[in-house]
Amino acid sequence: xxxxxxxxxxxxxxxxxxxxxxxxxxxxxxxxxxxxxxxxxxxxxxxxxxxxxxxxxxxxxxxxxxxxxxxxxxxxxxxxxxxxxxxxxxxxxxxxxxxxxxxxxxxxxxxxxxxxxxxxxxxxxxxxxxxxxxxxxxxxxxxxxxxxxxxxxxxxxxxxxxxxxxxxxxxxxxxxxxxxxxxxxxxxxxxxxxxxxxxxxxxxxxxxxxxxxxxxxxxxxxxxxxxxxxxxxxxxxxxxxxxxxxxxxxxxxxxxxxxxxxxxxxxxxxxxxxxxxxxxxxxxxxxxxxxxxxxxxxxxxxxxxxxxxxxxxxxxxxxxxxxxxxxxxxxxxxxxxxxxxxxxxxxxxxxxxxxxxxxxxxxxxxxxxxxxxxxxxxxxxxxxxxxxxxxxxxxxxxxxxxxxxxxxxxxxxxxxxxxxxxxxxxxxxxxxxxxxxxxxxxxxxxxxxxxxxxxxxxxxxxxxxxxxxxxxxxxxxxxxxxxxxxxxxxxxxxxxxxxxxxxxxxxxxxxxxxxxxxxxxxxxxxxxxxxxxxxxxxxxxxxxxxxxxxxxxxxxxxxxxxxxxxxxxxxxxxxxxxxxxx
Amino acid sequence: xxxxxxxxxxxxxxxxxxxxxxxxxxxxxxxxxxxxxxxxxxxxxxxxxxxxxxxxxxxxxxxxxxxxxxxxxxxxxxxxxxxxxxxxxxxxxxxxxxxxxxxxxxxxxxxxxxxxxxxxxxxxxxxxxxxxxxxxxxxxxxxxxxxxxxxxxxxxxxxxxxxxxxxxxxxxxxxxxxxxxxxxxxxxxxxxxxxxxxxxxxxxxxxxxxxxxxxxxxxxxxxxxxxxxxxxxxxxxxxxxxxxxxxxxxxxxxxxxxxxxxxxxxxxxxxxxxxxxxxxxxxxxxxxxxxxxxxxxxxxxxxxxxxxxxxxxxxxxxxxxxxxxxxxxxxxxxxxxxxxxxxxxxxxxxxxxxxxxxxxxxxxxxxxxxxxxxxxxxxxxxxxxxxxxxxxxxxxxxxxxxxxxxxxxxxxxxxxxxxxxxxxx
Lengths: 582, 425
Prior knowledge:
A: mainly alpha, 33 helices, elongated, disordered N terminus, B: five-stranded antiparallel β-sheet, 15 strands
């Protein structure tokens, strides 16, 4: 028994003793001992405990107090005769028996310890307690081999594969024998499946080099269903969701009553993984769990499963779930339409959106229209994108129309739409993107520029290489202080951050050339310091911090009033290695 | 003039005042204000350090606008300040108004002469962000060298003017994490590295090695070194020194139990700051003694954090403690460490208290002389991470450029640079 558990025992015994007035008096007498012990005055505490035991030889709180304090004071020999006396008076007390074993262990008298343990075992022939306490007393002294022998003696005497398996599993883990620990946990969960969570939690701490060995033991062909489910949970804890699901799925054909609980627990554990694989596996588990639970829980589970599958990038899986359960809930309909749009089946989605109008909420319908318009823009179908928005007068739709106007080269129309949409349409990233575009457009004195619109549309369609080239061409026709530097900066940012179909080195060189052009041009606008900061960031990102430092210093000293200076100082600190990465 | 001469001079002078020994600079200067006008207090120390490292004259204007610095008005220093976001104010040569204000008030102008060579005692595998001083030095741009047991034992300390200790448990008990964090990789590495070093240097146990290292550091200070310690190092170096002939390490550390009469056998004449402490005998409690007032891992003994107040010393009479408490804040929020504070009734007579929590039975920041050198102890682990836990992300000082707690650390780095002035008579 650990020392912290002893404190609990003390508290419990003090409460039990409260029924007997004499014991109450003795309990009160012992109280100062606890206080002295807590304040670190062990010798003084021991004196009080001794006094209590002299008047009440079987007073367990006092004896436990002596066990704690005399251990610290290196005076355990004084405790042995007191414990022997108490045990002789109350031979049936497991607490005193355990204490006696621990005292012998503390005194390193292992032969006597064994004799005492076996004598106790003989008095309670069906109990595993004597072997457990014997083993624990040795394990607390880090005597792993002797502790193992104690437990195995108990297993052999009492029979049963799983006898004392939990104790052996924990012992092997403390001794660093992870494979042996896993084998004992297999025995333990096979005997009682409800220790599975504890087994999984313990084995999840296995060091990485042991993962494969532990997994093999838990998931081998001879392992029980309960053991394999522990294996699946452990694999999840190690961040291997796909492997975990393979193991879990293989246990589901048995039709056992534990499957539902196991699946739910598996799904919950998978929810802790932020990776796409984690989401996908959670979705798969929820799908199977939904088949085992009644309605309406099953519908909610499937809806959640679809979301998780989509989050995990498994659109086909999500679609299968939706099509197999075409129960026409609004959530299901919306999810199916999202998948169709994501799969590029825009005409089908458009038609279905038209016919499902009444089954969808207004919010869902609006979100699907925007998604459809986005998908049309990605194909360059600006008219159909416009049509997809219909008569939607929401700020999100107005913002979207602004982008469509921009891609058509209508800069004035785009600015007006962005102004009307304001900073709250869609999410924060979209609002930031609109604001940045408005800042760029403000530098251009033209109301219409189809070449720039086409270049931006190329970017929006995901072709960054062609987009960067088109932006450079469009910029070359603009005055230096009339938006050219800003458009070049956008091209440089895209080249530096997104890359494209070309080799990354080419994109990087392109970005550097663009930033260089902007910095050389200089001037009053925000583009030169912004370009120099982007240039430095690119250098830091590619491991050339030393080359970034002069750029950052140039930026700080040349544009001391620029809004980019605080960030430049921060990047400079990082480039110099003066602040940690966080 | 060497730093140890400066310290000796301070000790010998007692209450005698200091007067300038050189003519004030007649070239234009830059005033680095250290009050709330400063945009990066911590980097300002680095600027002052680099100025004197370059062989330039600088002054520390004690108690003037938060302990400002005066450096020559040179393009290189202006550039340094601009790059680092440090506010400076060009001032007329001589600054008669400022000099007059300093003369008339509890202020003084101390010349800074020699950039101290800084050593940080830390294991070779310690991350640069493991302790507050390393972070402060790195952020301010002050160079330092990491040393460990072998360098101390081989006399390497003589190459340095200033030594910092932080994490080390000089009782050799691995901060008593041995049982609590049993099985953790980092602890295994720590044990292995210390055991290897003990064997390499011919010691039977790690506690024996650490006692010898503590004695080496004690000798370094006696011979004129400046020691600055924080957190665990403050308490455990004194315990290790006092326990030269007593076993105060638990069985897990050296194979033998703590001497039951350890308290009575400790020899406090060997220690820097503390005396009459009671050693924590329980190996499961990550506390070393009752020197620490807060007992962060002491269960029911743990005390809550408050705030500590810096003492206001006479700048002209007590320049050393005045330098150590220069700040733009007088009251600073407290922060935990394995050793957070120092119990008042465990302090030796003669120890100078630099900061305390008013009404509490502990103090936070102390200073003293030993032989030709001085030592300063500052309780706690990280002034900007009051509840620091193992595994916490490192503190990013660029988010705390005005940290008053970190300023106290940097005061210590710079004060050995101060030049002793000649007596008037």
